[in-house]
Design brief:
The complex is a heterotrimer. By secondary structure, chain A is mainly α. Chain A has 19 helices and 2 strands. A two-stranded antiparallel ribbon of chain B has the order 1-2. The chains are: A mainly alpha, B mainly alpha, C mainly alpha.
């Protein structure tokens, strides 16, 4: 167990798969399927090997460029491992959904696997250079996947995606350079420790002046683009809509979690105190994200856009939870609320990833079967010709709504449980988001599945065996986590406690 | 052994010059063999020199009355740059594989230029360095004027004259230094210890630095570079932007900074924030970075985009040198290597792979040709090269630019801000070129439709694949494992900054 | 008056005269009916043999100086030392120009031609060794008259006659100026001997008359070396004279004239040789010189600067390669004058006196550098004219465009042209670069003050300018497409000579110590 470089293996495996897929032509999808299945297996192995006390496990360290503070430092705790599993599952789902790539499939699946490697790399990195390398690495395949296989208006969408994310990366790079200049270190663990004693603030102030707050804002901005948080979210609807649905699954399921993960791994540990100072505006923004995401979703008729804005809304809860945690150390009650919120955030990341990916998968199926239609007004009464589809999609939709018993509920519940004592105004406002989301989801269900059957939907084919087999585990997972959240929370909670112990607000 | 890179290249040039006409195949293979031989020697020298300081390779008295020695030596910086030259030479030969006009003369001039470049990087006698520096001028002229394209005679003459004027300035400084030093030697080591009076250094340093910086493409003396690079045939552009511009930067470092360090001291007064030659040249470097990037953003000719991007990237080198700290100068040397590889790669793709087939470099026309589908190799190679040129982590440019930025920040934060703007604009112009040339969705023009139906583009040849793989691979390798070069560069830079001329 | 000394001092001149007479006898006596080719070959070979004999005879001179009264009286002729350098150079260059005659077809009077060349060379040898004003004048006239005749030798060419006329008129006027100046020197010192004049002037100090005399002499000599503003004859002469004659004018007469200038500047502006005077005497003398006679140098330096500027700028506009070579010759004369003019700009402190601490005499070093420059320049120019002659004969004109496509028509010739022109431009590793570098380093070694430094900077800058026009010709030879691609044939002897010159240029450039050591050996630096 110890000493085996499983994280390196996990990161390299998709790269090797990508190289093979590039040259596989028609068989690229099979290569990709094999690779993603293997990655999932490895990710689950990592999950089981987690240390029980919530500290970093499976740590690998090697000198890389010591004069620049660059070190090959990998490790996972509960948060990281969960993200690895999520990334593996979502990629598998995406590859599964992409069974109609006719144009250059080798390149397509190569890029998907490259993206997966980028995800794995950034979730396991504990040194900024390595983390940033994989952060950028994931950007390129995403761009090309949108650009080359996307919809009618893919050009501007891809460009907007690229520019926004690049700008965010630049902000991150600049701020981290400043940190490096002040401390000479790029190691997350070391910097967290410095921040927890206030040494980081002192070092930055000594070298650069009183700019720590600005650095914090810069880092936040970089992640805010990725999550996304209002007002940096405008790239998302276009990108999600124009990208082919399997790619959107990746974008919403995994890539957006990179932003939240970054906040948890980098922004809060290093700049917790500064974030606590600007907590109120941040909570406002988070609440706005929640509400605006839901409201905008309500105004859409294109299902992809509905779910895109809905993603903004769901991730807004994560932001809410994260910023609510930023209170100076209080008593046991405060700690309990913080722990609940943090657990909720992590759980929400996982759940939303699975659910949103599944929803976009369903949209892809709807599109395929009707020759491209994906507006909610294009359908009607699908319950009759396709009951299985309706049933499974319904479960996914209800999970997105937050129905108790399904996975979506648990994350949101924990978040609210933690946020209410810490920031009741924001929490109250965010309830609005819940209500509007409910309205949206129910509208979708009503318009698509119930009511009279639309003419072109009469012969709507239901899910065939392959698809049922593929979707069943996902839906099963939704139910399982909804009913037995302990499976995840139990493994994640020690990490949460550990993290909170090291964070200083 | 490293000295043999020089001898081998010149011997190869001579053999090729004497080859009878018509033996094009033999000429190519001979040139490739010589270039690969040089690369092998460079690699061997690099590996053997790891962990060593400066080693003297050859020391023969040349003109005893003047104290001039044929002195070849290598320290870490030299070894890295010799390695770059070897790689650029091999890639250049590979990308010139299809030249049919006066093939043997082309490769003769090419190898003569390579030999001169090796000579500059390995010379530790000021006079010898100057000789090799000038020797490199003539082959450049002929390579561009005979085998070039757009306005080649004008571009070749401009390049030759600018280089010669630059070297004339250096010659004046060299003569003055020799006369003033009182030492009867022109060896860099001895001159470094000579200790010139500060007032002398105050005017000799800018003279020598400017003379070398002209060849390094410092703004505002950079105008020869885009014209020359565009006019030159692909292999010559690769060499010019990749290696020859580095000769200028190397001279700035090895001669200017090492011999006249006090020329960079504050003047004692300050004029609009400028208080020393260091400020002057750093500002010029930052202007070059931003100006080069902005101008590249508005070019209509693909090759001009790359030409101006070279000016912009060389600005980073000069900025790093002016930081005068360990990390800045190390970054400058690493950027010399990185940009050398990437410039070669970019020119190879634009000039050889795209232009040879499409016969146009105008972005507006390329937009209509849907090259991502018809030349996927070129498109993806340019994606990789472009990302590397933007400074994407994982490629060599990121580490180098990072070091330069940090080094500059330690001196004057505004320099870093300016350079940062240049990087952002750099992303923009690379982006624009990438979009327009390869991934554009513009409707196919009549001309493009004709050619699309008329004929397929020629297949990618094995030399092209080999060349691209070599260069991109090296950049990726250095980007992921920068220590392989940093371990050699850092001690040498430390020694140079510590004691002049060492 | 020791006639044995006179004989020894004039051994090379005697050898050449005998050769000249032999040539005339052979040609007029025995070869009247022979073919032109045979006559040319015999005459040229005899001339070359004469030069060789003269060279061989030089070893018997033993550095002997011919004096009017033994043993320390005023000298008339010298030999050995730096004089031997100049004389050997003249002999070798004469031989090369004679070899270029091999495939010439501009005249049937080959015997006379070779004889005149040899006799003009005698004049050059005399100038190099002269220590007396009248001997100088004799040698100068002998050389000049020969050159006028040689210029006019192409009887069928109108240009040749016009050039000779202009040269003669100019030269006559210059000779008059020179003689007038000499007469003032005689008046000032009461003697025509260089050493005596120097002593007399050092004793009394300069007077306005001295300056006038000096200006007149500079005028006369400036004409000879084609310095601005006495250069107007040069383009026409270089263009009109037959190629071997132009080569001779461009090389040998320059060597002789600069040898004379060196001995004048060393003799009048400095003690005879550093070995003769003690260090204190030299220092005192130098300080005295600087404080009282700075104007002497100014004239020379102004002429030098003007030559560099005008020569290079005018060459930029030329279309005829011969005229281009003429203007570049003017520019090169400017560089060389710099080396001479700076002799008298001792700053009185600093690097110059440093060197006297048992070290190198900077004035001798710069004189050696000037001679190095003029010898290698002469060699290169002969080669250049050789190439031009071949191309002219094949295409009928010496315009730049006749060189189009030369690399295809005769690759070897084009390669020779490349080497020679790059050497003239000062590109390493050719000898022209080293000659320039050596000269400039020596100049700065004499005096590193602002004035010499500015002039060196000017010289370097204009060298950069000169690259442009040399490249114009090379561009046509190598780059631009050919109009006519018929091969150009050159006589094997001509080709051999040109290749030998090119090889020498490369060899001397790579190993500059070869020639440098020989010169320094004969004219020691300490």
């Amino acid at each position: 167990m110890s000493g085996f470089p499983i994280l390196t293996l996990l990161t390299v495996l998709p790269l090797v798969g990508a190289a093979i897929a590039l040259w596989s032509g028609k068989h690229a999808r099979n290569v990709a399927l094999v690779t993603t299945l293997a990655s999932l297996a490895l990710a689950l192995v990592v999950w089981t090997w987690l240390p029980a006390d919530g500290s970093m496990g499976m740590v690998e360290r090697a000198a890389w460029a010591p004069s620049l503070g660059i070190e090959y430092h990998l490790g996972v705790d509960g948060l990281g491992a969960l993200m690895l599993v999520l990334a593996a599952i979502v990629t598998l789902m995406s590859v599964d959904a992409a069974h109609r790539v006719h144009h250059q499939p080798g390149l397509y699946f190569g890029l998907v696997l490259l993206l997966e490697s980028g995800l794995f790399g950034s979730f396991t990195a504990l040194n900024f250079f390595h983390w940033f390398l994989f952060w950028e690495l994931s950007l390129i395949p995403a761009f090309f996947l949108i650009r080359l296989w996307g919809g009618a208006r893919r050009g501007p969408a891809a460009t907007q995606f690229f520019v926004y994310t690049m700008a965010g990366s630049v902000a991150l790079l600049v701020c981290f350079l400043a940190v490096f200049l002040s401390t000479g270190s790029m190691d997350f663990g070391h910097l967290t420790q410095m921040a927890s004693t206030g040494a980081l603030d002192r070092a930055v102030t000594a070298h650069l002046g009183p700019v720590t707050l600005w650095l914090a804002i810069g880092v936040l901005a970089g992640f805010a683009v990725k999550v996304p948080m209002v007002p940096f979210h405008t790239w998302l609807p276009a990108a999600y809509a124009e990208a082919p649905s399997p790619v959107t699954m990746l974008l919403t399921g995994a890539m957006s979690k990179m932003g939240v993960y970054g906040l948890l791994r980098i922004a809060i540990p290093l700049f917790g105190h500064q974030i606590a100072q600007i907590r109120t505006p941040l909570l406002v923004l988070a609440a706005v994200t929640v509400v605006m995401g839901a409201w905008a979703a309500a105004a859409q008729t294109d299902m992809k856009r509905i779910f895109a804005y809905s993603s903004v809304n769901h991730l807004g809860y994560c932001l809410l939870g994260i910023f609510a945690i930023a209170v100076p150390a209080g008593g046991a009650a405060v700690f309990a609320s913080q722990a609940a919120a943090l657990n909720g955030v992590i759980l929400q990341m996982f759940n939303h990833g699975i659910t949103a990916a599944a929803l976009f998968w369903f949209v892809a199926m709807l599109q395929e079967r009707t020759g491209g239609h994906r507006g909610i007004d294009d359908f009607g009464g699908l319950r009759k010709p396709a009951p299985v589809l309706a049933g499974l999609m319904g479960i996914a939709l209800f999970s997105s709504l937050g129905l108790p018993g399904l996975n979506g509920f648990v994350g949101e519940f924990l978040i609210f449980r933690g946020v209410f004592p810490l920031a009741w105004v924001a929490a109250t406002v965010s309830i609005l988001g819940l209500l509007v989301t409910a309205a949206v989801i129910l509208t979708v269900i009503q318009k698509v599945f119930t009511g009279p059957v639309a003419e072109h939907c009469v012969n709507f084919p239901d899910l065939h065996h392959g698809e049922r087999l593929a979707l069943a585990p996902i839906i099963g997972l939704m139910l399982l986590i909804g009913l037995l959240p302990q499976l995840i929370v139990g493994a994640v909670n020690p990490t949460v406690v550990n993290l909170l112990a090291h964070w200083r607000f | 052994m490293l000295a043999w890179t020089i001898y081998l290249s010149f011997a190869g040039a001579l053999m090729l010059a004497l080859l009878p006409k018509g033996k094009n195949g033999l000429a190519r293979w001979l040139a490739l063999a010589v270039a690969v031989g040089g690369l092998a020697l460079a690699v061997q020298g690099f590996v053997a020199g790891m962990g060593q300081g400066r080693t003297v390779l050859v020391d023969l008295p040349w003109v005893p009355t003047m104290g001039v020695h044929f002195l070849l030596a290598a320290d870490g910086i030299s070894r890295v740059l010799v390695l770059l030259t070897g790689l650029a030479a091999v890639a250049g030969v590979l990308f010139s594989w299809n030249i049919e006009l006066r093939t043997n003369e082309f490769f003769a001039f090419f190898l003569a230029l390579i030999g001169g470049v090796y000579g500059v990087f390995l010379s530790f006698d000021l006079f010898l360095l100057f000789v090799f520096y000038e020797v490199a001028i003539v082959p450049k002229y002929f390579l561009i004027s005979i085998w070039g394209s757009t306005r080649r005679e004008y571009a070749a003459m401009k390049l030759a004259l600018y280089s010669f004027v630059g070297s004339a300035m250096v010659l004046i400084g060299l003569l003055a230094a020799y006369a003033t030093s009182g030492s009867h030697s022109t060896s860099l080591i001895a001159l470094g210890h000579a200790g010139f009076p500060v007032s002398f250094q105050m005017w000799c340093f800018p003279l020598v630095f400017t003379g070398f910086a002209i060849l390094a493409g410092m703004w505002p003396f950079h105008t020869w570079a885009p014209t020359g690079h565009v006019a030159a045939p692909t292999a010559a552009s690769m060499l010019l932007a990749g290696v020859v511009m580095k000769l200028g930067a190397y001279g700035c470092l090895r001669v200017g900074i090492a011999l006249f360090p006090h020329g960079l001291d504050p003047w004692g007064f300050s004029f609009i924030g400028v208080g020393s030659w260091r400020d002057v040249f750093a500002i010029l470097a930052v202007v070059g970075i931003v100006y080069g990037a902005l101008v590249a953003l508005v070019q209509t000719d693909f090759k001009f985009v790359i030409g101006y991007s070279s000016v912009s990237h060389m600005g980073f080198v000069l900025l790093g040198l002016m930081a005068l700290n360990q990390i800045g100068v190390t970054g400058a040397v690493l950027q010399m290597f990185s940009h050398g590889i990437l410039a070669g790669l970019l020119f190879a793709i634009v000039g050889r792979i795209v232009y040879e087939r499409t016969h146009t470099r105008q972005l507006a026309e390329l937009e209509t040709m849907h090259l991502s589908r018809r030349l996927p190799f070129a498109a993806w190679a340019f994606v990789i090269a472009g990302m590397a040129s933007m400074g994407l982590p994982g490629f060599s440019g990121f580490v180098a630019e990072l070091q330069v930025l940090v080094g500059a920040w330690m001196v004057k934060p505004w320099w870093t801000v300016g350079a940062g703007i240049g990087i952002v604009v750099g992303v923009a112009y690379t982006w624009r070129a990438l979009q327009k040339a390869f991934f554009s969705d513009a409707p196919a023009s009549a001309h493009a439709l004709e050619s699309e139906h008329g004929h397929e583009f020629a297949a990618i040849t094995w030399p092209e694949v080999t060349g691209v793989t070599l260069l991109a691979g090296v950049s990726l390798f250095v980007g992921l494992y920068p220590r392989i070069l940093l371990d050699t560069i850092e001690p040498a830079v430390k020694a140079l900054l510590a004691g002049g001329g060492q | 008056m020791n006639y044995a000394d006179l004989f020894r001092a004039t051994l090379p001149e005697t050898a050449l005269e005998i050769a000249a007479l032999l040539v005339i006898v052979a040609d007029l006596g025995f070869l009247r009916r022979a073919a032109l080719k045979a006559r040319v070959t015999v005459a040229a070979l005899l001339g070359v043999a004469g030069c060789g004999a003269a060279l061989w005879a030089m070893q018997f001179q033993g550095g002997c100086w011919f004096r009017l009264t033994d043993p320390a009286g005023p000298a008339l002729l010298g030999s050995g030392g730096i004089i031997a350098v100049a004389q050997a150079g003249i002999l070798v260059l004469t031989a090369l120009t004679l070899l270029l005659l091999i495939d010439a077809n501009f005249t049937r009077h080959v015997g006379e031609y070779v004889a005149v060349v040899l006799m003009a060379a005698v004049g050059g040898l005399l100038i190099a060794g002269a220590q007396d004003l009248l001997v100088i004048f004799i040698g100068l006239e002998l050389l000049s008259l020969g050159l006028y005749i040689l210029t006019a030798f192409a009887k069928r060419s109108g240009k040749s006659a016009e050039a000779a006329m202009k040269y003669y008129l100019f030269g006559g006027m210059a000779a008059a100026f020179l003689l007038f100046g000499f007469s003032y020197f005689y008046g000032l010192s009461g003697s025509t001997n260089l050493a005596e004049i120097q002593r007399a002037i050092a004793a009394t100090g300069p007077s306005p008359l001295f300056y006038v005399a000096w200006i007149l002499v500079v005028t006369g000599l400036g004409f000879k070396i084609a310095a601005v503003p006495f250069h107007l004859w040069a383009p026409d002469t270089y263009e009109g004279a037959p190629a071997p004659a132009a080569a001779f004018i461009a090389s040998v007469s320059k060597v002789a004239s600069f040898a004379l200038l060196v001995s004048l500047s060393m003799g009048w502006l400095m003690p005879g040789s550093a070995a003769a005077a003690s260090k204190d005497a030299v220092e005192g003398y130098l300080r005295g010189v600087y404080q009282t006679w700075p104007q002497l140098a100014t004239i020379l330096l102004v002429v030098a600067a003007a030559s560099m500027v005008v020569g290079n700028l005018a060459a930029l506009a030329q279309v005829s390669v011969r005229r281009l070579l003429a203007y570049s010759a003017i520019a090169h004369a400017g560089y060389m004058l710099l080396g001479i003019g700076v002799h008298s700009t001792f700053s009185g402190q600093g690097s110059a006196l440093q060197f006297f601490a048992g070290a190198v005499n900077p004035a001798i070093r710069s004189s050696n550098a000037v001679l190095y420059y003029v010898l290698t320049y002469g060699l290169t120019t002969i080669g250049a004219f050789g190439v031009v002659a071949v191309v002219e004969r094949a295409t009928g004109s010496d315009r730049m465009d006749s060189f189009l496509g030369l690399h295809k028509r005769n690759p070897l010739l084009a390669a020779v042209l490349l080497v020679l022109f790059l050497s003239l431009a000062g590109i390493p590793p050719l000898v022209g670069f080293w000659a320039k570098f050596n000269l400039f380093a020596a100049v700065l070694g004499v005096s590193a003050g602002p004035v010499p430094f500015t002039l060196v900077a000017l010289a370097v800058a204009f060298s950069a300018v000169s690259l442009y026009y040399y490249l114009q010709v090379l561009k046509r030879a190598y780059v631009m497409p050919a109009v006519d691609e018929t091969p150009i044939k050159a006589h094997p002897v001509t080709m051999a000579v040109l290749l030998a010159i090119a090889a020498a240029v490369v060899l001397l450039g790579c190993f500059p110590a070869l020639l440098g050591n020989w010169i320094d050996g004969l004219s020691p630096l300490r």
